[in-house]
Amino acid sequence: MLFVQNVNGDQTAFKADNVQITDTLGQYPTLSFTFVETPENEVAAQMMIPFTIIEVPENKQRYRIVTNNPVSLGKVKQYSVTAIHIAKDLHNKYVDERLENTQSLKSCLDLLVKDTQVKYILHDNFDNYAFSEGFGGGYADDLLMQNLASDFGFEFYFDNYTIHIQKKLGTKESFLFIDNANVSKISYNEDYSTITTYIKGQAKPIVKETPDETSGGSSSGGSWGWPFPDVGEGTFMGGQLFGVNAGGEFRPNGFHDGLDFGSVDHPGSEVHAVHGGKVIIKSYMGGLGNYVVVHSDDGYNIVYQEAFSSMSNIRVNVGDVVKTGDIIGYRNTDHLHIGITKVDFNTAVGKSFTNDGTWLNPQEIIRNGIANNNSENNVEQPTETVEEDKPTEYEIHSEYVSPLVEKAHWPKVEAEPITDDNITDENTLINKLKASIHDYPDIEYTLDYANFKYNSVKFNNDIKVGNYGWLRDRFGIDVEVRINSYTWYPQNKQADTVTFGNKRFDPVEWQVRNQKAFERNKKLGETLKNQISKVQKGIVLPSIQKELEGKLKEYIDDKLNNNTPTTPDIPKPQHIGKIIDVSEWQGVIDWNKVIADDVTLSIIRVQHGSAHQDLKYMENLQQCISAGGKYAVYAYFAATSTSDAQQEARDFYNRTQKVVAGKQQPIFYAIDVESIEMSGDVTQMRAGVEAYMSQLNTLGVPDNKIVLYIANHLYDKFNLNVARPGAI
Fold first, then answer.
1. How many structural domains compose the chain?
2. Which InterPro entries match (predicted)?
């Protein structure tokens, strides 16, 4: 049961399914749920309009609706709704006023919450901060999360309209788990791509007198360009184009609110600004991923989204002024989505699938803008002498090298240099360099909450975002970890998900890893050498023989029908029926006839990678279930990296649940692995598929519900972990 309140203050309760809450450190909590428009839910269905509030009784928190997707199920509709914590209302305020020079945290917060319902509580004392360019000029929540949190060094959480601010959230020693002891299912995701071991920086600018005259022109607005200049406009498939086009039917109303630049048709990682302006938002939102919005002097809000798997892939920050062609960030997904609107961005997001003129056609705007650029360039301009803009010089220069370069023999990997106008002494600069270097991998450990509770042996585990605890990992190293994210289901029995992130490792721990690997490798070599010697002498080890015989018997028994034949020679007859593979290529299907034709299982395609959603999958799933058929779902593996594989898994699961949530669930989720992906590196296929499966685990799909379909001619090359899935 959830409670709903519209903008008029009208309230009602309704029955919802699949209620899911995700609390993440440093972000707004999110809520998602589904419900069917039954007579008792009819009033609630009519209240699913902009700015409606949902309250969850279990945590007494309120959330404001962001997206609403009704799907027809015969005579009724099923609504899939997502909402963001009501503290997001802070984004309704744009702070024009600016505070200059040195300010207290209180004065900055007072400016942000002025004339809003939001309040704050400071649980610690904070030093003042010197702003070189002042504080303000942005949306209140962006200034809180992107500026104040890092400048003053605090963390926060929301209790409805109250912001609680502390130097560090959470408590120490809140949980303890040991892999292969009191925990048997910890999934790991280790990302080494962000490691840096060397950084340099400069501070304290040298002030020089400059002439009063400056060259004209603004860095905002002005010319237009394509985000991947080497490709230019390029070509697009129908599903990538703005508006309603063939290939985009899978979207609500068939409408696409932007233009997608695919990594195949528009190669390259550097995402360039298509128009000048000021960065007003840098944030994360479900469906958009990590995104950035640039506002131009001529009134355009331009969003760059779905291209950045991590916030670190976005180069610009709120308050930065960019020119056409400047690098916005680095794409490491399968496509970049660009949307253009002249409406307030947060209002426009609510109309992502509405073709009412809120969203504009980026292809036409950029193409016409470039044409205007060229026509203006062809007009003879009066010559003007402009003094060359010389770079700022700095008085303090320093560098920092990670101790891992010497102690763990890591290479020198340079981080992006730091420039800080506020620092005035070398020690402060060095401390900032140390804090800015990333000389440890990003490691996430995921454990479902059912196991978390079940395995809490003699330890009172406290599960809250920000809490610290201990995991003993597979290397035998005790790792202090912190709960980064907690996804829970307050109104059903689905296993909750807890995600941990690691703290910085000590160099000694990496030496321990290397030493343990060396010792195990040496022991393995000695064991193999001894066994080979015994085999050469014709010796059959009784323990090995017994183990092999036992496994062989178990395998044969398992393969026999029911393991208990009616006679020694005649197994029990078992009717299998037909199993079919269904996708958009079969066109319109009469599902009642299909089920009547002795089809016992339909394996329905949901997607080809993340980029292509099967055009008929929603219809096929709905009608197969309505006809009483048994079904499974599958997705073609097309990932270029492990992070891409994780995104594909999330899309696969979410697209499936968008249709079947609250209904008959698929018998299994199949991953179709029949081509060399992972950027063409066959040696990475195992890691990619493992990451895909682990992400499905995180979403609640166990290994025994995952099936791998593997191309026969590539089976050996892929070297997949065939012991893990429920079937091959």
1. 6
2. Dup_hybrid_motif, GH, Glyco_hydro_25, M23ase_b-sheet_dom, Prophage_tail_N, Tail_dom
Is the domain of 226 the same as that of 286? yes
> Could you tell me if 258 and 363 lie in one domain?
yes
Asked if the structure places residue 562 within a domain, the reply is no
372-400 average pLDDT score: 64
Residue-wise pLDDT for 230-275, tens only, equals 999 999 988 899 999 888 887 888 899 999 999 888 999 999 999 9
As a whole number of angstroms, the distance between CA 435 and CA 357 comes to: 46
CATH code at 675? Answer: 3.20.20.80
Closest among 610, 614, 696, 622 to 662, alpha carbons compared: 622
Which neighbouring-strand residues pair with 554? none
| Mean pLDDT on 509-524 | 55
Residue 412 burial (CB < 10 Å; 0-12/13-18/19+)? exposed
| Pairwise CA distance, residues 558 & 76, whole Å | 45
Same domain, 234 and 305: yes
> Which amino acid is residue 300, in one-letter code?
Y
Q: Helix (H, G, I), strand (E, B), or coil: what is residue 429?
A: helix
Q: What is the pLDDT of residue 561?
A: 45
Pairing of strands 255-256, 478-488: unpaired
- 538 band by pLDDT with thresholds 50, 70 and 90: very low
Same domain (yes/no): 227, 367: yes
- Return the ∠ at Cα 349 (arms to 343 and 351), rounded to 5°: 85
Alpha carbons 542 and 376: distance in angstroms, whole number:
87
Q: What are phi and psi of 495, to 5 degrees?
A: -65, 130
Name residues whose C-beta falls within 8 Å of residue 15's C-beta, 6 or more positions apart in sequence. 1, 35, 38, 40, 41
Q: How far is CA 629 from CA 71, 141, 219, 667, in A?
A: 20, 48, 60, 11
- Residue-level pLDDT at 210: 44
CB 187 within 8 A of CB 495: no
Question: The domain spanning residue 103 has which CATH number?
Answer: 3.55.50.40
Question: How far apart are alpha carbons 685 and 693 in whole angstroms?
Answer: 12
Q: What SS3 class is residue 278?
A: strand
Burial of 367 from C-beta contacts in 10 A (0-12 / 13-18 / 19+) = middle
Identify the helix (H) or strand (E) that includes residue 290.
Answer: strand 289-295
- Domain finish residue from 71, 88, 105: 88
**pLDDT band, residue 529 (cuts 50/70/90):** low
Domain that holds residue 425: 198-206+392-436
Cβ contact 668:726 at 8 Å? yes
- pLDDT at position 346, please? 80
Residue 516 domain flag: no
Cβ count within 10 A of residue 6: 19
- With beta carbons less than 8 A apart as the criterion, state whether 35 and 44 touch: yes
Rounded mean pLDDT of 650-678?
89
Give the separation between CA 305 and CA 67, rounded to whole angstroms.
17
Decide: residue 76, CB within 10 A, 0-12 exposed, 13-18 middle, 19+ buried.
middle
The model carries a pTM of 0.45
Q: Are 25 and 484 in contact (CB under 8 A)?
A: yes
Both tokens of 325, joined, read 């062609």
34 token code pair: 């589904």
Any domain includes 214: no
71 and 155 in a common domain: no
How much is the pLDDT for 219? 42
Among 122-126, 521-525, 614-618, which is the least confidently predicted range? 521-525
End-to-end CA distance of the chain: 40
| 125 located within any domain | yes
Query: Does residue 105 share a domain with residue 77?
Result: no
Nearest Cα residue to 304 out of 317, 318, 290, 315: 290
Looking up residue 338, the CATH number of its domain turns out to be 2.70.70.10
Query: Are residue 239 and residue 360 in the same domain, yes or no?
Result: yes
Instruction: Identify the weakest region by mean pLDDT among 31-40, 92-101, 499-508.
Output: 499-508
Q: Taking residues 655-660, report their average pLDDT.
A: 90
